[in-house]
Design brief:
Blueprint: H1 15-44, H2 48-52, H3 62-98, H4 113-118, H5 126-135
Length: about 140
Amino acid sequence: MVRKKNSGKNKPFTKKELQAVRKRLIGEKAKIIEELIRLKGEGLNKSFKDASGDLSGYSFHMADMATDLYDREFSLELAQGERERLFALDEAIKRVDEGTYGKCDSCEGYISRQRLKAMPQAKYCIECQEKEEKSAGR
């Protein structure tokens, strides 16, 4: 683990700033939960027949079934991504509560405020994130 010296621009958050960050994270979390509820209501819990509105006992046309299947799969992928983001936001809220928010999990230096503004759930500074992605083979 390499430790970086704290540069002047990357510094710990004040208690007031952490309260504002926590409020923002909770707001982001609420938006994701609303989106997951919307996705669920739009057909993830419906059968193909119910989703299409077809009341007849006849089978679907294969092209219609393929389109419906694609749409359902796409919605499931969206929902999975949103669940992962929800988990990351929960971890960020936990770091705020513990007083470790804004510290890189790898080098323990401070993550730039600009990065945290764009991605409030970030747990690595840019340099360590790049190393993580390279080691994961992305």
